[in-house]
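re: ur msg from earlier - yeah i can do the thiamine diphosphate complex, just paste it... oh wait u already did. ok heres what im feeding in:
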Amino acid sequence: MLNHNLKLNSKIFNDDVVLKSTREGFGEGLLDAAIENENVVGLTADLLESVKMNYFANKFPSRFIDVGIAEQNLASVASGMAAMGKIPFIASYAIFSPGRNWEQIRTTICYNNQPVKIIGSHAGLSVGPDGGSHQMLEDIGLTRVIPNMVVISPCDALEARKATIALSKTNHPTYLRCARNETPIITTIESNFQIGKSEIFFKPDTGLAQVGIIATGPILYNALMAAKKLDEMGIKVKVMNLSTIKPLDREAIILLAKETKNIVTIEDHQVSCGMGSAVAECLSEFYPTKITFMGIKNMFGQSGTPSELMKYYKIDTESIIETIEILFK
Amino acid sequence: MENLSEEKIKELKIKSNNIRISIIDMLYIANSGHTAGPLGMADVFTFLYFEALRHKPENPNWVDRDRVVLSNGHICPVLYATMAHAGYFKIDELKTLRKFGSRLQGHPHREFLSILETSSGPLGEGISQAVGMAIAAKIEKGMDKTIYCMTGDGELDEGQNWEALMLASKMKLDNLIIIVDRNFIQIDGSTETVMPLSDLASKFKSFNCNTIEINGHDFNEINNAINSAKKVKEMPSVIISGNTPGKGVIAWEWDYKWHGKVPNRDEMSKAIRGLEEINEKLK
Ligand SMILES: Cc1ncc(C[n+]2csc(CCOP(=O)(O)OP(=O)(O)O)c2C)c(N)n1
Ligand SMILES: [Mg+2]
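and the outut:
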């Protein structure tokens, strides 16, 4: 059942669950943060509306800069502004930032430890018809590997909004991973969000869980849907929302591993360097546990609707159910 | 300067309008993608594939073919449609654009459609690849090949383009012809507001490029520009093709909103009817 202590959306399993994109949540959060703190500035690279920076830009035109289609410049200009005391939010598609400008992010932002907030929108397969060139499946790996960087991948628009506000108040370089398409609202305004803290969103009614699913980003919804089904089939599941990937909530992950002895990670990202890998690095050192990795396995994306792609790359609800059923056969 | 015959111009105009019809049709069916750029570049593509290029659609891997690099991958509907009309594949396949399993990916992907010279979508990387091809072609013996590279104007905001141009000049790549889709729009608005390119021609000239400015909807001007670019020695050429975004559908022309928007059913049928009428009059 859903963990009611967290005040999650009680309509989550209904067909009429409200949909909203995490990039939209970012856009709203940026406006909130900018109203609260006049040092917040926003920069984009010719993608103002796509990355939802328009709410902010309309309200604070003098604190907004469009650098043109130049993501490397975007990152380093932001570093310069941060050096002067600003809190720059830079937003583009994840494939270009932190994709194209990775070394500028490493050197001018992280090596200097400047509080630049990097918003990678349109991450994952959910970009759909644009195809593989635009489906960023390596960004969690690219960012979590850089010292000083914080990495957050919110599960819904509300969490994205809260995360945006939260990271405007920290001094760390941060990567916020957002998606293009509209996905179910899983949390509510009352749900707590704290950088670095995971939560168990789904748990058995009674007794211990036999498997712990760890998910990050909007794909958490698939994990919750699968958990409900598995629960009805008599398989006891816990589902963790791991929205902060770095710093990793080690304690909670180890606790889940100790209870279940059986971890399944799921992400809209390459398996080889993503959230599951971060979980594996933690568990293999502190509490070796069997892990099943669900995600993209050494392939590029391609054109299709998000649901066709989820199915093909086996990160849809059905695939999670199948994978876990096999574990218990 | 030699002018094309009236007959030839009429034939090219009809072809490019048919290509525009295919573009509108495929974007309507795909229900996502980019409209303004492809329509604006339809005349240039028509001239390239039906007049300028040395190529064999029936033998796409012919080693001595000219190469076409599409740096602004988002305008691929015009590339796909022109290639289909030129005989590379069936026109019917255009209907699969952006669908799961299609060879016609939302942005060109060479692993899906191997007759493409390269994959693109992420902007600003095409000129570098074309420079690489041009250098390789110079080293090789065999027939002289021309390497064509198409780029957007907003795309030129990317610094990599200018890194590539410096190398192209240094290497005296007279086998390289860059064609800029100078339509004055990018996603966030006019190029001159988002990131002013100002006097683009003098920028290219100062990078030691043979620079030619044309009206990209005038086949004589396209023809003369390509001919003179081919004659120039020891420097790369840049043709700045002044194009009307959305060309051919008056209601869409010059409106930057059509950069990444596709027509609904009504808009699609009106636009296609308009182009068919123009072709009727030409015949
Ligand atoms: C590196 C990179 N950054 C951003 C984008 C997103 N994008 C796609 S098209 C486009 C505008 C391109 O402008 P222009 O080259 O003038 O093409 P036009 O709009 O005229 O078709 C942008 C910013 C991209 N494809 N690649
Ligand atoms: Mg343009």
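cool cool. The radius of gyration of chain A is 19 Å. ping me if u need the other ligands too
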